[in-house]
Write a structure and sequence with these properties.
By secondary structure, the chain is α/β, with parallel strands linked by helices. 36% of the residues lie in helices and 19% in strands. The chain has helices at 2-10, 26-37, 66-75, 86-89, 108-111, 115-130, 142-154, 184-189, 192-205, 211-222; strands spanning 15-20, 41-46, 80-82, 134-138, 160-164, 228-237, 251-259, 265-272. It binds adenosine monophosphate.
Amino acid sequence: MKNLSISFMRSGMRIGFVPTMGALHEGHLSLLKKAREMSDVLVMSIFLNPTQFTANEDLSKYPKPFDIDSEKARREGCDVLFAPQADEIYPPGFRTSVQVEGLGSELCGISRPSHFQGVTTVVLKLFNIVMPQCAVFGGKDAQQAIILKRMVRDLNMSIQLVVAPTVRETDGLAMSSRNTYLTPEERIQAPKIYCGLLNAGKLYEKGERAACVLKKTILECLEKAPLISPEYIEIVDTVNLKAVEILADVTLVAVAGRTSQSKTRLIDNVVLGGNI
Ligand code: AMP
């Protein structure tokens, strides 16, 4: 892959990059569309990164429809699909990692302590292999996008990192490769998460700035989804991910929940007062 990237760069081509773990849906494809607009060569990676899964998580059951994925990527104009094996990315003796201090232990980092270190390390490695000028990530994983932006800035990396909007099912549920785990009853209740976030957004538009009021409206929606136990409902600033009481600047309203039947972890968010 690296030699190919070097030849693209020598021909003056701008490389756009979309890293994924596969099981592609319209959310992933929207990132390809965005990256296509900004580049001459479009590279997507499919790598089920073991280091971002914590011990009891779903690495072994994560869907791996590789042939279907590669056809979807090709149809969306992907020029190069990079799908390395784990030992290519982590050869024997590998022992380096990248950590954006502090940010990875907030929100999802509480229940997934090593997750973001796994993400930053693999994304930095993928950037070094693919050598893109721009890379597109989804706003659905807002904490991930904020952490990666910070890594790019802190390490003086010459990559334009773009955050694209969350793509949703028609009933509002944020698309996710993990939605296929949901039981039919859970699937009916899952849009309540976005319903709560939308209600919080509506209150914000009407002038409400108290975080506790926004949280309450989200919780009320989630109470109508008894198969989803909230893991957190947090209202935080988009720089340090610290809780705010009064919304004064760009604010991330983030929710994580776990379903009781299939034990699927769902996350979603809205950003109020600007973008990340
Ligand atoms: P994943 O394969 O889950 O690691 O996701 C790969 C990329 O797709 C990440 O940048 C995600 O934020 C992004 N992504 C996942 N779901 C969505 C969605 N529903 N809308 C937009 N981007 C998404």
